[in-house]
Amino acid sequence: MKRRGPTWIAVLGVQVVVAAAFATAYEVSSPLSKEVLREEWSLQDPFEPVPIPRTTPLRVEPLYDRPDLVSDEDLAAVLDQVQPRFEKERLSPNHVEHALRTWGVGATFQNPAVMSGAEMTAYLTDHARFSQAWSEETAPLVQERPTGIAINWGRIAGASVHHDHWLASLTEAGAHLETPVYGPSRYESSLYDVVQESLRDFRLDERETEWTAMSFGLWIPPTRSWKGGDGRYMSFDLIARRLMRGQKELGVCSGTHRVYSLMLLVRLDDEFHILSETARTEVWTYLESVRDAITHSQFEDGHWPTNWWAGAAALEDPRDDPLYKVVITTGHHLEWLAIAPTELHPPEENIRKGMEWIIATTKSQTLKEIRSRYTFFSHVGAALALWRNVRPADFWRDWEATHPFDAEREAIRAAAEPAEVETESAH
C-alpha cells in the first residue's frame, strides 16, 4: 500500500504557522534588525558612503629626534640601501607598495635607475603602466566592480600580497584622495573610490586587518563607526579588538604589525576620540604587555627573535630564525616605538642595542641581497627616519645636495654582487 503524503491543506497550514511566527518575530525585533531585514528583502545595497573630511591623509608624527641613536651618516647609508632599484619586468606590486610607503609620493632620486614616487604611484594606480610589466594572462591589479574599484590581492603573481596593503601604502605615502585610479576600461575613478570600496567589503572575520585599520584610521576620523556592505555596523573599537584577538605571534610579521596599527589608533584617538574609553584602555594594556615582552626577549647583540612575545623564555630556547625574519621583527618594533610615548618604551638600552644591530645588519647587505628581501629592509629605512623625525624623501633630497649620485660607485657596487642570492618569502 502506498504511503499517503501530506495533503495540500496540511502543507498550507504549516506555511501559515511559519509565516505567523516570522511576522511575530519581526514585530518584536529591534529597529536595527528590522532595517537589516528590509534591506535583504529588497536586495537594496545597505552600504552608505562614509564621509571623508580631508583630501590628504592624516599623518601620525614621530615623537622624537634622536641623532644620538641614528646619525645622519647611518640614516643616509640605510636609505641608500633601500632605494627602489627595481627591475621593470614582472615588477612585484608588493615591492613597490613597500617602497612607496617608505619614500612617499613626492620622492625623487638623482640615480636614473631608481623609481621616483610619481613613477611608483603610477605603476600601482594605472593598469596601462602595470600591464607593461606583466603578460596578458596576469589578472589586473586594479579590479573593476559594479560597486566600485578594488585591488587584486593574495599570494599570486602580479597581485598585492595583503588585503588593503595597497591602500595603506598609498595612504601612508601621502597620496591625494583624488589621485586617479585607472582600471582596464574605467578611467574616471580615484583613490576615493578605492577607500569607499574597502569600507564596503571589510569583514571582521578577515585574517588580516592590520592595513585596513591603518587605512581607515588615516582617512575617516572623526567618524567612529559606519555601516558595511553586509549591513553590519563597524567601528574602530571592533577593529582594535580584532587586532588584539588571539596569540601575539599569529599576526602578520610575527605579530609585530598589529602592534604598529594599534599604536597608530591610540595616537589618532588622542586627537579624534575614535575609540571608546574601554577600548582604549584595552589597547593600552595590550601595548604595555608588548613593552614588557620585548624588554626581556631581546638578545645581547640587539635583535629581537620571532618569538619576542615569550619574554625571557625566548632566550632560554633560542629559535634558529633566518635573517629576514629577525630583520622583520627588530625593524617593526623600532618602527612602532618611534610613534609611542615613553611610557610604552622598554629601557632605552634596549632601543639603542636594537638600533645598532639593525643599522649594522642593513649596511652589510649587498644591493642584490637588499633587493631580494626588499620588503623587510624597507621598514628599517622607515623606522630610522621616524626616529630622526624626518621624511626619507626630504632627508635624501638634502643629502644628495651635498653628496651627489656617483654613477661610478654604483657600477662598482653592482659589479661586486654575488651571482645568486636566495629570495625570501613575501611580506
Poorly predicted spans: 1-5, 35-42
The total of helices stands at 19
- Give the strand tally: 6
Indicate the overall shape: globular
Largest sheet: spatial strand order: 1-2
| Overall mean confidence score, pLDDT | 90
* Helical content (DSSP H or I, runs of 4+): 40-55%
How far apart are the termini? 69 Å
What are the secondary-structure elements, in order, as H or E?
Answer: HHHHHHEEHEEHHEEHHHHHHHHHH
The biggest beta sheet, please? Answer: 2 strands, antiparallel
C-alpha-based Rg, rounded: 25 Å
Structural class: mainly alpha
- Total domains: 2
Describe what you observe in this structure.
- This protein is mostly helical and 427 residues long.
- The chain folds into 2 domains: 58-87 and 235-427, no CATH class; 90-201, no CATH class.
- It is built from 19 helices and 6 strands.
- The strands form 3 sheets. A two-stranded antiparallel ribbon has the order 1-2.
- A hairpin with a 5-residue loop joins strand 5 (225-227) and strand 6 (233-235).
- The chain is globular and about 70 Å long.
- Residues 1-5 and 35-42 have low confidence and may be disordered.
